[in-house]
Design a protein that fits this description.
Its EC number is 3.4.24.-. The protein has helices spanning 8-21, 33-36, 74-86, 155-166, 310-330, 403-418, 430-448, 461-464, 496-518, 533-547, 554-569, 574-582, and strands at residues 37-41, 47-51, 56-64, 93-100, 104-113, 116-128, 133-138, 178-183, 189-199, 204-211, 217-222, 228-231, 244-247, 272-275, 291-292, 356-359, 369-372, 381-384. By secondary structure, the chain is α+β, with helices and mostly antiparallel strands. It has three domains: 50-143, Nuclear Transport Factor 2, Chain: A; 146-222, Roll (Nuclear Transport Factor 2, Chain: A), CATH 3.10.450.40; 231-583, Elastase, domain 1 (Roll), CATH 3.10.170.10. The strands form five sheets. Strands 3-7-6-5-4 form a five-stranded antiparallel beta sheet, with helices on one face. It has a four-stranded antiparallel beta sheet with strand order 8-9-10-11. Strands 14-16-18-17 form a four-stranded mixed beta sheet, covered by helices on one side. A hairpin with a 3-residue loop joins strand 4 (93-100) and strand 5 (104-113). The structure holds 2-acetamido-2-deoxy-beta-D-glucopyranose (5 copies) and zinc ion. The site of zinc ion has 4 residues, from helix 6 and helix 7. Zinc ion is lined by residues 408, 412, 437, 440.
């Protein structure tokens, strides 16, 4: 029981406010659509415009008192206050919920008509710790026309209609359908059957309001939150290419609940969590609707302190890792093949609890990045260290804003989980680890090639501060630009990144041949169902990893690639692949890093 002191002077104040604003008038002609309407596409070509009556909102500084004639519960006090403000009978005010914190308590209410709740006529009263009203909001209405409270359309028929229109189903596990009024923009109150409709494949989850007299859909509630991020889009390599604001970049099939689970409003979700050093240091949303729009100041270098740019970096890393989850998911790195997710939605055989942890501006190192891939069911960890003093002319730079590096690191997770069925043990030999570096570079290149006009590809120029800092040659079909052959494996430095360049360059040649033959799809990042060269390439990239042996050699990786083409495309590209591999010395008789340029007979 709260105690609400009876202070008449403040009641007078409250009443004065009430007469000034009264209840929200029914539909002024000047209704601003922006704040009162929501238009949503539900199902194919069906658009529903929902109306929300205009509201009033007032705050009271140190607080206004409520006259209740004595002590009262928060519910009673709220009803008394709403009554005094909007002139609605206490019988027509229903308290729905209350909440409290250390500094305030809030009661939430809705209006009733004919003893039936009105879904879109709501109010709330907030009290401070001295039980004085500090805020009041209301969209209560005085409706002119109230439909009969007895439905004339059966609930079963309403559900059937909505399921067809909204392309989803009402499931038994949902709350039972209810009857509520919905205020429409002409001021009338439509009696509605209210129930949920969902489609897990399409990633939709709605609440439908179907007119219980006309059978029409009068409104929908969309439970899927929209999210906004300011980032370097995945198709851009370097921050110098320009940041952009992206709305809802998630793939609805790969991430049916979006990238933030319900209630999580930080860089934390089912596929990834990005933070600085400890899991508690995630980036918060910058506005209360899953907006993550932060500025990046190039004048402030990344450091081990609380950098001004930290949240931007966390958001970009979160966005890239989630995007890669979604892209690789569509091409086959799913719950059935040991991908990285906290919850698998019951969709496949592997273990959950292994979303990617991304440590940004990690304080335990410098000038590097890495990715650890433990077995299925354990979280992988990507660590991005600041690039700092390396060379007097090296500016300090943050790898979390250079996409090719993040893609490269995530690529290690993909190749390590797919090879050998999720054990994390199958890219361990020098040769296999080198192939791993190659796949990672190749994945980065694939996300950034933009057209059928294939560019030579250089990695990490911005972080390195000049081309060729981290890789010896650009990846190229020209042997003058990139002379690496299979046999270079014995002449380059015996280290996985150097040997890996040979494989990445072979894959560049495979990619160029495929795009030359089948063209380029602009939508390959989100649509795996086309037949252009870059789409075919990513299918075989993912397919081949799962069917190659543990600790593969160059020869085995080539054979797995060509077999993957048989499995998916009946070997349509067999000779094209042999020619591409053979052009770099990995022909039919290649063995032990001795070049062979031959191709099978018939090619
Ligand atoms: C109420 O909140 C105010 C402002 O935060 C604080 O100064 C005061 O101590 C609180 N009073 C009680 C009784 O908690
Ligand atoms: C759910 O969505 C998918 C993909 O958009 C569609 O193919 C399917 O027919 C939908 N299910 C229902 C019940 O409408
Ligand atoms: C960095 O090192 C400290 C102490 O050595 C450790 O507590 C912390 O967990 C490390 N951070 C990461 C991301 O490993
Ligand atoms: C989120 O809120 C911000 C600030 O109020 C606003 O500018 C933005 O349009 C909103 N975004 C969406 C998707 O509603
Ligand atoms: C230092 O950086 C400059 C240009 O940024 C480059 O020309 C030079 O080779 C670098 N030196 C070393 C030792 O990396
Ligand atoms: Zn690597």
């Amino acid at each position: 029981m709260l105690s609400f002191p009876n202070l008449l002077s403040h009641v007078a104040l409250a009443v004065a406010y009430a007469s000034a604003t009264s209840a929200s008038p029914v539909l002024p002609d000047t209704v601003v659509k922006y704040s009162t309407h929501a238009t949503r596409e539900v199902g194919e070509g069906v658009s529903v415009e929902s109306f929300y009556p205009p509201g009033i909102y007032k705050t009271f500084d140190d607080g206004a008192d409520v006259f209740t004639g004595g002590t009262a519960t928060i519910q009673q006090a709220a009803i008394a206050f709403i009554q005094s403000e909007v002139g609605v009978d206490a019988d027509n005010i229903q308290i729905t919920t209350t909440s409290d914190s250390d500094v305030h308590k809030v009661a939430y209410a809705r209006q009733k008509l004919n003893n039936i709740p009105v879904a879109n006529a709501v109010a709330h009263v907030a009290f401070n710790n001295a039980s004085r009203v500090v805020a009041f909001g209301s969209s209560f209405i005085r409706s002119a026309k109230v439909a009969s409270p007895e439905p004339s359309v059966e609930i079963e028929n309403a559900i059937k209609t909505a399921e067809g229109t909204m392309k989803g189903t009402h499931e038994d596990s949902f709350p039972c359908p209810a009857l509520e009024y919905w205020i429409q923009k002409d001021g009338s109150a439509a009696l509605s059957h209210v129930f949920q409709v969902r489609n897990q494949t399409a990633g939709t989850w709605y609440e439908a309001f179907v007119d219980a007299h006309s059978g029409e859909l009068v409104s929908v509630t969309d439970f899927v939150a929209h999210a906004t991020y300011r980032v370097l889009p995945i198709w851009k390599q370097y921050p110098t290419e320009g940041f952009e604001v992206l709305v809802d970049p998630h793939d609805k099939i790969a991430s049916p609940r979006g990238w933030h689970d319900a209630g999580l409003t930080r860089t934390l979700g089912n596929n990834a969590i990005s933070f600085r050093d400890s899991m508690g240091n995630t980036a918060p949303q910058s506005a209360d609707n899953l907006t993550f729009v932060y500025d990046y100041d190039f004048g402030v270098p990344p450091d081990y302190g609380n950098s001004a740019n930290l949240h931007f970096a966390e958001v970009n890393a979160f966005y890239i890792v989630n995007t890669l989850h979604d892209i690789t998911y569509r091409y086959g790195f799913t719950e059935n093949s040991y991908n990285f997710q906290d919850d698998n939605f019951g969709r496949g055989g592997d273990l959950g609890a292994d979303r990617v942890m991304v440590s940004v501006q990690d304080s335990n190192g410098s000038n590097n990045a890495n990715f650890a891939t433990p077995p299925d069911g354990q979280n992988p960890l990507m660590r991005l260290f600041p690039f700092i003093v390396y060379n007097v002319s090296q500016p300090q730079r943050d790898p979390a804003i250079e996409n090719d590096l993040i893609v490269h690191e995530f690529g290690h997770g993909v190749s390590n989980r797919l090879t050998g069925g999720g054990s994390g043990r199958c890219l361990q030999t020098l040769e296999a680890r080198s192939l791993g570096e190659g796949w990672s570079d190749a994945l980065a290149e694939w996300t950034e090639q933009k057209s059928a006009d294939i560019k030579d590809y250089f990695l990490e120029e911005w972080l390195g501060n000049y081309p060729g800092r981290w890789r010896t040659y650009p990846y190229s079909t020209s042997t003058a630009t990139n002379p690496l052959m299979y046999s270079s494996g014995t002449t380059v430095q015996q280290e996985e990144h150097y040997i890996g360049e040979i494989w990445a360059n072979m894959l560049h040649n495979v990619y160029a041949a495929l795009v030359g033959e089948h063209g380029f799809s602009d939508t390959a990042l989100t649509n795996p169902d086309e037949n252009e060269g870059n789409v075919v390439y990513m299918h075989l990239f993912i397919d081949s990893l799962s069917i190659q042996p543990c600790n593969p050699t160059f020869v085995a990786a080539r054979d797995a690639w060509i077999q993957a083409d048989v499995n998916r495309y009946s070997g349509a590209n067999k000779c094209l692949f042999w020619k591409a591999f053979a052009s770099r010395g990995l022909g039919t008789n290649a063995q032990d890093f001795k070049d062979d340029f031959s191709v099978p007979t018939g090619c």
